Amino acid sequence: MSGFVEKPEPIQVPGLTHLHTGKVRDLYENEAGDIVMVASDRISAYDWVLPTVIPDKGRVLTRLSLWWFDRLADLAPHHVVSTDLPVGAPADWAGRTLVCTPLDMVPVECVARGYLTGSGLAEYDASRTVCGLALPEGLVDGSELPAPIFTPATKAAVGDHDENVSFEQVVRRVGEKTAALLRRTTLDVYTRARDIARERGIILADTKFEFGFDGERLVIADEVLTPDSSRFWPADQWEPGRPQPSYDKQYVRDWLTSPASGWDRGSEQPPPALPEDVVAATRARYLEAYELLTGTAWS
């Protein structure tokens, strides 16, 4: 069992139709048929949406996504039409709301890995492969891969695990032409972002993208290259063979699985609320990632 510890009631706004409440985002449709995407301050871990929010997280995700969209547009267009606040929307939606083109979404999580960790490490330790791709012997937690790899997953509903799949499974699901386009675009965008991050002292270990089609055009949707969808590591502390310090929500995961939380991940009990110091430290990591990547002080 997993999902929301406390699922929020959707906010009703005149002229907007509520479509979906996800782990982090709430989706609406406006009268023109555009998608209105509102990034909340919710945080998820281990397939649970936690009962505690991280202040400013929604604005960080939105502002950082917009920064990246501008730097990736020649490789893959994005879905953002406007950042204007819809008429009648709550004032606290400001800075975390995007009006977007509706897309025919591809039912695949497009993951790129340049370093070995997480579920990729677990699979490698068992079989020396990740998503069916053979990797060399001798890799450890945090090892840089010989080249970035495309390791797709099926997108799960809230509370379910995304499941790593092979490229061949993606071909069966979306066709050979679309699968090849997804792989090429994912690796091109990852490589561009990896190089930009590296210039700023950050290792982009892995990341996931969501794509959709606007007619024949493949478009990046949702968010992109934030601490929610990416593993960011400080380059000057990188040391393969151990878990790496990070600018993402790994800090929350680590607390949840520590004795301090008192939570048994294997039980069906929901995780507890986060203490104030964990909230503050997590917020600080999100803001630091934003400031290091963009070169702009948070305000």
Automatic annotation (TrEMBL):
The entry lists its GO molecular-function terms as: ATP binding; phosphoribosylaminoimidazolesuccinocarboxamide synthase activity
Key word ATP-binding present: yes
One GO term of the biological process aspect: 'de novo' IMP biosynthetic process
Q: What are the residue boundaries of the SAICAR synthetase/ADE2 N-terminal domain, all occurrences included?
A: 19-269
Per the UniProt record, which residue ranges are transmembrane? none
Specify the domain of life of the species encoding this protein.
Answer: Bacteria
Q: In which pathway does it act?
A: Purine metabolism; IMP biosynthesis via de novo pathway; 5-amino-1-(5-phospho-D-ribosyl)imidazole-4-carboxamide from 5-amino-1-(5-phospho-D-ribosyl)imidazole-4-carboxylate: step 1/2
EC identifiers of the protein: 6.3.2.6
Chaperone as UniProt keyword: no
Catalysed transformations (reactions): 5-amino-1-(5-phospho-D-ribosyl)imidazole-4-carboxylate + L-aspartate + ATP = (2S)-2-[5-amino-1-(5-phospho-beta-D-ribosyl)imidazole-4-carboxamido]succinate + ADP + phosphate + 2 H(+)
Keyword field? ATP-binding, Ligase, Nucleotide-binding, Purine biosynthesis
Q: Which GO terms describe its cellular component?
A: cytoplasm
Family listed: Belongs to the SAICAR synthetase family.
Q: Which NCBIfam families match?
A: PRK13961.1, purC
Q: What is this protein called?
A: Phosphoribosylaminoimidazole-succinocarboxamide synthase
The organism named in the record is Streptomyces pacificus
**Encoded by which gene?**
purC
